[in-house]
Amino acid sequence: MRLVLLLVWLWSLAPTAMNTKVASAAPDPPSAPSLAHCPKTCGDVSISYPFGVGPGCFRRGFDLICDTTTKPPKIFLGNTTTQVISLFPSGTVLASIMYTIPMVPGVGTYNLSWESPGRNLNIATYNYLGFLGCGIGVYLYHPDTGDLVGHCTIKCASMASLLLVTEGGGICNGMGCCTVTFPVAFRGFRVTIVKNNETVPQPFANITIKAFLSFRPYMFRIADLLSDKINASTVGASSAAYLSTVITDKPNCAKARSDDKARYACGSSNCVNVTNGGYSCTCSGSSDDGNPYILDDCKQEYNHTPKMNCSRSCGSTNIPFPFGFEPGCYATRRFQLNCASNRTLIGRPPVKYEVTNISLDDGLLYVNKLSEFEDANMNYLSIYYGGSGYFGQQLVYGLDKSDLSEEFGVWRWSAANLTCENAKNDSAYACRSANSECIGVTHGKLYIGYRCKCSPGFEGNPYVQSGCTDIDECLLPNSCNGTCYNLKGSFRCCPHGMFFDPVGKQCTPDKRQNLILGVSTGIGSGFGVLALALGAIILVRRLKRGAQRKIRRAFFRKNKGLLLEQLISSTSESVTHSTRIFSLEELEKATNNFDPTRVLGHGGHGTVYKGILSDQRVVAIKKSKMVEQSEIDQFVNEVSILSQIIHRNVVKLFGCCLESEVPLLVYEFISNGTLHDLLHGDQGAKCLLTWDDRIRVALEAAGALAYLHSSAAMPIFHRDVKSANILLDDTFTTKVSDFGASRSISIDQTHVVTIVQGTFGYLDPEYYYTGQLTEKSDVYSFGVILVELLTRKKPIFLNSLGEQQNLCHYFLGRLKDETVMDIIDSQVVDEASQSEIDEIASVAVMCLRTRGGQRPKMKEVELRLQLLRARRRPRRTHEQELRRDGDTKPSLSTPMKSRSTSVAMAKNVELGVVAVNSSSQALTRCYSMEQEMAASSEFPR
User: Fold this and answer.
1) SS3 string of 626-687?
2) Membrane topology for this entry (predicted)?
3) Cβ atoms of residues 667 and 613 within 8 Å
4) Is residue 823 part of a domain?
5) By CB distance 3.0 to 4.6 Å, which of 151, 157, 635, 940 could disulfide with 161?
6) Rounded CA gap, 26 and 60, in Å?
């Protein structure tokens, strides 16, 4: 295996390399016509001088290579592997710089370095170097002096500690990943990575190191750490850095202008000294944003008339002239915007914002900070264009300066930096409508320029010919108590009995007033009689509705509506707003008066109907079977519990209805049925759930139960965990449902004594005999579900003799006899490895221990399943590669003697740091208690 990542510094060879390209470089500064033959794009990247592809198209040291063998083509800096993502006329480069470094046994030090071919690009200080790895130290050295300028270390204490990082937002803090920042702008970097003398736990030993240069914040993921290469959708999406162009053939502007005018890059544009040597070129503020490295490109004429068929929207944002996207659609380039992914963008790196609204009347631009600049400082006072020009001053930083999550900006803008008096004499005067006027724009004592506004009484766009149109004030709220007549730019109000004379432009008496008054009286009398008749009809209907309301109110009180309101209002405000009380009329309409064809199933506590609400949401409506008062209490209990739960793997409650004799519960509709149906529907056919699906379903169900036990506002014990209460939506996402038997307890309680409820086959034997409900009761039931996923057998099933058999008793007996592989589902045997079957079996054995105190917590079970799924992903990728090379999948039909490892692991399982001894006595006791329960399995729940 070849050791990667010692990039050799080529600075000593740079002069030689550049001399070979002198003949192919363009004259400085070139004119736009002299570059007309040059390629303008490579794939999706626009090419701007001084960079270029081909002879005569680039300044010395700025040549690019366009690789047309890829789709789309990719562009690189010279003969390097540094890919260019974007190029900007100002000289800014967005580049992808990333590396993967395999850890080699016996090698403790790795070196990494980078610089641009001609040392003509600066790495700005808002970029950083990010690293993924375990048990390493990273040291950043100055590329010229060799001084140490930054370092960080990475540890991987345990899977649990890494999970805490991801749950805390994924911020790189030295656990799994770390970052090193640049104290000043560098022309390159040199990094040494040293392996620390510390023990790294599996599976993190000798893990591949990933390194990348970026300006965007990176959110750590365990999957990125475990992968052998940089993930393009996560780390790769973050690994892009902004580099600024530097002309390095002279140390500063003065030397460049005096020593070698023929090679002076700026021409008629501004020259700016660079702090670490060299200079760069910029356009002045009054010259907009042309290319400062092309002769006279900073100058631009004002476009008064936009071309036809210009795009005037991006997403939900309207784009009025003088702004625009395409050439010919904006007045000058300073008003050019970009539309990307339905977002309107303005600005240049590193200051870039999304435009949400443009106000011509107020001369304001509303912007939001882009997500990729979330770490940027909102105290930027302007969008920077050129050397000293500003687009506009930012006036407001946010609604609440302490709430950085809602940062936004409002900028004043001007058409040009001129006074109104001077602008009116300028050929580029922007106010083109005859009904417009010029207004000066200031910010405090700072004069920004002028803008245009429609004259009073007109509205529209003052920047285009005939853009300001008359406002019909009579259609708007006004102070006229008589008859309103609209005029151009104003309106006239005439008292009653008078009308407006357009010739004399005044109000005159109306001789038709008496006739109009008589007709009006007759019409009014007719409407009066009609109103009385309608009033009588409405009164009768209101009386009927009042009676219905009384009946529904009585049902509301009977169904413990006041108690339910109290329980819901006692929860958080967000839950209160999301839980709605539906009217009976709305639910009858949604279910077609509870048509039997809409029945989805009959649960332990009622019948479930499919319904479609008025907002077209498809919902499941549970109609409880109320016979006794205790069942009403169970209904109230289910609504109260569901209203407190907000979890992606728990069925979502929309609300309830208490206006009928039988209360109704409305929750989200789950389209793919239950886990029980998918596992046990047609035993002769192949199950729709693959082994990967079964692990994911088990993991998501475990996460939901762990949330109920420990993360909810009050611990909640489900008390009826079974495969029939695990639903799967259209994306096969797990949803835990049916909380009619659930109990919530205070945080300081460990158990509660209740009447035994549940389903035989899933019922915790300790709970069955003692009546003490604990979180470990749900753990036992979850263990039965794990056995179902392994064997595809029901909790109470018929054996080969036609006798009812308890799955727990049967499974543990097979484990003891070392014949458990004979009852594993054939699809699982085909798709899973022996170690994965052993792992799930061992977790199931821990969950099925007779004594609740010896069972793990649901959070521990979830962590075991997470680790199993994380280990399976790389193995599955390896198997797919083997199959592509013609290899076959290894057989799982090993001798039964090898299965003894599974039994040994199941009897001596260790989860976290607590080891639990499963003696033969404990297993024997589980058999006897389950046998007693199996005798009663024929009774309903």
Assistant:
1) CCCHHHHHHHHHHHHHHHHCCCCCECCEEEEECCCCCCEEEEECCCCCEHHHHHHCCCCCCC
2) Single-pass type I membrane protein
3) no
4) yes
5) 157
6) 8
Extract the annotated binding site: 623
Host domain of residue 283: 246-300
Output the domain CATH number for residue 808. 1.10.510.10
Please classify residue 300 by burial: count the beta carbons closer than 10 Å to its beta carbon, then call 0-12 exposed, 13-18 middle and 19+ buried.
middle
User: What residues form the annotated binding site for ATP?
Assistant: 623
Q: Would 503 be classed as within a structural domain?
A: no
Q: Do 220 and 250 lie in a common domain? A: no
The answer to whether residues 42 and 166 belong to one domain is yes
CA–CA gap between residue 125 and residue 568 (Å, rounded)? 51
Q: What is the pLDDT of residue 63?
A: 93
- Establish whether the linkage from the previous residue to 322 is cis, with ω within 30° of 0: yes
Cis preceding linkage at 203, omega within 30: yes
DSSP notation for 778-791: HHHHHHHHHHHHHH
Helices (runs of H) and strands (runs of E) counted in the chain: 21, 51
Q: Decide if 548 is inside a domain.
A: no
Query: Quick check: is 334 in a domain?
Result: yes
The pLDDT score that the predictor gives to residue 774 is 86
659 with 763, same domain: the answer is no
Q: Among 410, 437, 468, where does a domain finish?
A: 468
Same domain, yes or no, for 232 and 325? no
Residue 924: per-residue pLDDT: 32
User: Does 432 lie in the same domain as 384?
Assistant: yes
Based on the structure, what is the number of domains in the chain?
5
Q: Which amino acid is at 856?
A: P
- Catalytic residue numbers, as ranges: 720
Domain closes at, from 668, 703, 730:
668
727 and 871 fall within a common domain? yes
Looking up tokens 């399982």 gives 909
Give CA–CA dist 409/378, Å, rounded.
8
Angle between helices 629-644 and 561-569 (to 10 degrees): 20
Q: What is the pTM of this model?
A: 0.43
Tokens at 687, concatenated: 């199950």
Instruction: Answer whether 726's CB lies under 8 Å from 785's CB.
Output: yes
Q: Are residues 150 and 256 in the same domain?
A: no
- Cα–Cα separations (whole angstroms), residue 199 to 132, 134, 923: 17, 10, 37
Name the DSSP class of 291. -
